[in-house]
């Protein structure tokens, strides 16, 4: 397979007008973790090395490798590149010739990974694409991938994004109300907060954040923005905290509102819903021999998990006719076999070491290759 390359640009450049793909490296070899349902209670030396190299803690890394089952010669897609920790681990497990197509909407994430893996660029084992994972089928076609053996989606946010006040994702530090994953898009969280109607805001907070006091928060926002535009994370966090009185030990009162705004700004649920059928189609076109192609998805809140669960259940069922239908008329055939009967969650040790992993849920399914 020929590797698709663009003319090299200066460090920090991120392809915009054309979805450029750039060959990047892999790393050293590693051993596949064996056994079902058991994972180390502490970070291995390999994990520690990856975290040191990427400055990012990959969530449920051992579980990802166990369920994705990367092997030598396999081709994989990491639809949420982030800090590059999962990608590096997949490349190590698929050594010496496995490849990964890494996708991210964040130019900064791509630039960081390109710099961290610059020593391996000549190997051509990692392709990077700037864009949304909902377009992975287009990136795979452009990269001329002959097949895809596994796809990973980690729907969380990297430490770089959460710990950068200027990105506006966190209420723990003063920053602009931005929340855009792709900073080239025009709509920011500040735009929504300052222009959406009270009814629209309440709907966003309830639908995407499941905030019980959505109407009251929306009403207060509209009242306060009439006095002064809301432009910073601290402003919004204080406003929400004054309306939502959290119990001691509970999550920050602004957590659900910030989640809702982030989801709305980036159209996260719509993109996930759009991506899942493309994932299935890519994996279904895989090789007939070898292990069954797999999809592994890590979600961080019930809205994402529900979409993933419903999709997997639907595609693991032969007939999807209404229950009262006497005979099947839909003609639907199962295309997936669910690997995780219930969502896999991180162990206590990982949550203790990385509190951001506490709400992670992993689901996996393998494709039924039609003969």
Automatic annotation (TrEMBL):
EC number: 2.1.1.199
Catalytic activity: cytidine(1402) in 16S rRNA + S-adenosyl-L-methionine = N(4)-methylcytidine(1402) in 16S rRNA + S-adenosyl-L-homocysteine + H(+)
GO terms, biological process: rRNA base methylation
Keywords from the named record: Cytoplasm, Methyltransferase, rRNA processing, S-adenosyl-L-methionine, Transferase
Alphabetical list of Gene3D superfamilies matching this protein: Putative methyltransferase TM0872, insert domain (1.10.150.170), Vaccinia Virus protein VP39 (3.40.50.150)
A GO MF label: rRNA (cytosine-N4-)-methyltransferase activity
One cellular-component annotation, GO: cytoplasm
Residues that, per the record, bind S-adenosyl-L-methionine: 84-86, 104, 133, 154, 161
Domain of life from the UniProt record: Bacteria
A UniProt-annotated Pfam family: Methyltransf_5
Record-linked PANTHER family: 12S RRNA N4-METHYLCYTIDINE METHYLTRANSFERASE, S-ADENOSYL-METHYLTRANSFERASE MRAW
Function: Specifically methylates the N4 position of cytidine in position 1402 (C1402) of 16S rRNA.
Family to which the UniProt record says this protein belongs: Belongs to the methyltransferase superfamily. RsmH family.
Listed name of the protein: Ribosomal RNA small subunit methyltransferase H
């Amino acid at each position: 397979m020929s590797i698709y390359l663009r003319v090299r640009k200066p460090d920090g450049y991120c392809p915009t007008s054309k979805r450029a793909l750039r060959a990047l490296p892999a790393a050293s070899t590693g051993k596949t973790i064996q056994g079902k349902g058991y994972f180390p209670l502490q970070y291995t030396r390999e994990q520690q090395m990856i975290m040191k190299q990427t400055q990012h803690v990959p969530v449920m890394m051992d579980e990802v490798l166990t369920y994705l089952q990367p092997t030598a010669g396999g081709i994989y897609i990491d639809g949420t590149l982030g800090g590059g920790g999962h990608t590096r681990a997949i490349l190590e497990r698929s050594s010496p010739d496995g490849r990964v197509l890494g996708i991210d909407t964040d130019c900064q994430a791509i630039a960081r990974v390109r710099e961290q893996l610059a020593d391996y660029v000549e190997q051509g084992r990692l392709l990077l694409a700037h864009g949304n994972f909902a377009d992975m089928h287009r990136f795979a076609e452009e990269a001329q991938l002959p097949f895809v053996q596994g796809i990973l989606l980690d729907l969380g946010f990297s430490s770089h994004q959460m710990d950068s006040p200027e990105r506006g994702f966190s209420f723990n530090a003063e920053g602009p109300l931005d929340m855009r994953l792709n900073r080239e898009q025009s709509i920011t969280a500040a735009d929504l907060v300052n222009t959406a109607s009270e009814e629209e805001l309440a709907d966003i907070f309830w639908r995407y954040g499941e905030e019980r006091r959505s109407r009251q928060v929306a009403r207060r926002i509209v009242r306060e923005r009439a006095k002064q535009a809301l432009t910073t994370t601290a402003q919004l966090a204080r406003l929400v905290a004054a309306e939502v009185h959290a119990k001691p030990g509970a999550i920050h009162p602004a957590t659900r509102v910030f989640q809702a705004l982030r989801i709305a700004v980036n159209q996260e649920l719509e993109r996930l819903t759009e991506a899942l059928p493309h994932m299935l189609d890519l994996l279904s076109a895989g090789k007939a021999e070898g292990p069954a192609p797999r999809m592994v998805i890590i979600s961080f809140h019930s809205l994402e998990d529900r979409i993933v669960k419903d999709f997997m259940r639907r595609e693991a069922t032969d007939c999807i006719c209404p229950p009262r239908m006497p005979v099947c008329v839909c003609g639907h055939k199962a295309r997936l076999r669910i690997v995780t009967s219930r969502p896999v969650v991180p162990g206590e040790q990982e949550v203790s070491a990385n509190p951001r992993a506490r709400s992670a849920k992993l689901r996996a399914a393998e494709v039924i290759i039609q003969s």
